[in-house]
Amino acid sequence: MNLVIVEDESIAARRISKMVQELAPGTQVQAVLTSVADSVHWLRQNPPPDLMLLDIELVDGQSFEIFEQVEVLCPVIFTTAYDEYAIRAFKVNSIDYLLKPIQEKELQQSLQKLQSLKKVYGDNNPSSVNMDILLQELRTQRKAPIQESRDRILVKQGQRMFPVATTEVACFFTKDKLNYVRTKSDKQYLIDYTLDELEKSLNPKNFFRANRQYIIEFHAVTRVHHYFQSKLKVEITPKPDEDIIISREKAAELRLWLGE
């Protein structure tokens, strides 16, 4: 079996390579690619491999972009620490989906699934990825009922309490073990709700849990930057007291939330 690994973490790539070669002796790792650009170039210059193990979050973007630039004519197993809601989409639209850190037993099952499909379909393996279907499935599963989403939040100012409409909110955040809301007019108020409680009650179309410290509002986002180790940095207005960093694992979800 000819294998191509697309993974920008060298330790993870070596581990995957070793694991596959132990599970499927005779496997030839044709290439270990670390970026969207390298993957596109390699696929244009070489015959399709028998299998691609493909991480979603790469150093220069999402591996979804590979499919937009070149036709991928081989089975794909996605390997990523992606959110749980996506599992069904990947299961349906690719050979398999493996959650990092990859377990040997799960990888073995994926390889067995590939071999079973080859026995049935031969070279006409219907296992290449239809990215249009996959991305549509991801967006569909990301949607949540909004009928019961809160449209206001009760805030405190001294001895006074009053409601603030969620349309006026730029972000919710935690600082020094207290929880606050910051409005688009740059006013800050203390609130009694935790970010976990707010995350469950806010409209997910308008609000995104960026990290443990921040929930951000869609219209407050002004810019997104690539950050170290495939993370993202989000700028919002009014400017917060600290940088809002999106983890590698949540970066793909943020992109979908922003409309990718």
UniProtKB/TrEMBL annotation:
Statement: the UniProt record of this protein carries the keyword rRNA-binding: no
Coiled coil: none
Sequence ranges assigned to domain HTH LytTR-type in this UniProt record: 153-260
4-aspartylphosphate: modified positions: 55
All residue ranges annotated as the Response regulatory domain in the record: 2-115
Keyword annotations: DNA-binding, Phosphoprotein
Gene3D superfamilies in UniProt: 3.40.50.2300, LytTr DNA-binding domain
GO molecular function, one term: DNA binding
Superkingdom to which the source organism belongs: Bacteria
Pfam family name, one: Response_reg
InterPro entries reported for this sequence: CheY-like_superfamily, LytR-like, LytTR_DNA-bd_dom, Sig_transdc_resp-reg_receiver
Name by which UniProt lists this protein: LytTR family DNA-binding domain-containing protein
Organism: Rhodocytophaga aerolata
